[in-house]
Amino acid sequence: MPRAWISIGSNIDAHSNVAGAIRELRRAFGDVMLSPVYEARAVGFEGPAFVNLVAGIETELPAAEVVRRLGDIEARFGRIRGEAAFSSRTLDLDLLTYGNTASSVNGKPLPREDILKYAFVLRPLAEVAPAERHALDGRTYAELWSAFGGDTTGLKPVAPKFLEEAEAENRG
Questions:
Q1: Model-level pTM?
Q2: DSSP states of 9-50 as a string?
Q3: Which of 52, 97, 162, 170 could be disulfide-bonded to 120 (CB atoms 3.0-4.6 Å)?
Q4: Is the dihedral of CA 144, 44, 113, 137 positive or negative?
Q5: Quick check: helix, strand or coil at residue 145?
Q6: Is 97 helix (H, G, I), strand (E, B) or coil?
């Protein structure tokens, strides 16, 4: 069964929206593996800091169906598609990888280019899937993070209470 990695981000009522997204991902896909959580300053615009993490699922659903379900979850949390590319978000769910395939879904490449561009995507991915390899680059995510030359300022680990609550809810 292919493993898919999904980036999760929010900077509007972030803790509540991210906790809700985790619940919805579990409803839609079953077990969800979660990375550590990071706070990152807004990129490309002035705005509140984002809460970011990466979630992993295993699914037999086609990648296009995973993307459709992610869009449905975003919409339930007030995400309006067509917003400016760099703007505040109630919830942003992006399919980063789908198995070890290189393809595209709805015009977005897989693996997603954001993996190699943004510390707030690569660092949590490298922590939760260090030995997995980028389907195009060939290096592991841990190797990519170690060699990352992009901006890492403003990226800091956080231990939000909502993540502990989501994990406790998942266990029982």
A1: 0.92
A2: EESSSHHHHHHHHHHHHHHHHS--EEPPEEEE--SSS--PPE
A3: 52
A4: negative
A5: helix
A6: strand
Q: Output the six-digit token pair for 24.
A: 């919805």
* No. of helices (H) and no. of strands (E), the chain: 6, 8
Q: What average pLDDT does the segment 35-59 reach?
A: 94
Taking only the tens place, the pLDDT of each residue in 134-162 is 999 999 999 999 999 988 888 999 987 76
Q: 133: which DSSP letter?
A: B
The Cα 83–Cα 75 span in angstroms is: 13
CA distance 39 to 166: 18
Q: Which residues contact 139 (CB under 8 A, 6 or more apart)?
A: 133, 147
Number of other residues whose CB lies within 10 A of the CB of residue 124: 26
- Find out whether 10 and 18 touch, Cβ atoms under 8 Å: yes
Q: Are 7 and 93 in contact (CB under 8 A)?
A: yes
Tokens 């590319």 correspond to 85
Locate tokens 């395939």: which residue? 101
Tell me how far apart the alpha carbons of residues 155 and 81 are, in angstroms, rounded to a whole number. Answer: 26
Decide: 90 and 48 in contact? Cβ < 8 Å.
no
Respond yes or no on whether the N-terminal peptide bond of residue 111 is cis (omega within 30° of 0).
yes
Q: In this model, does residue 81 exceed pLDDT 80?
A: no
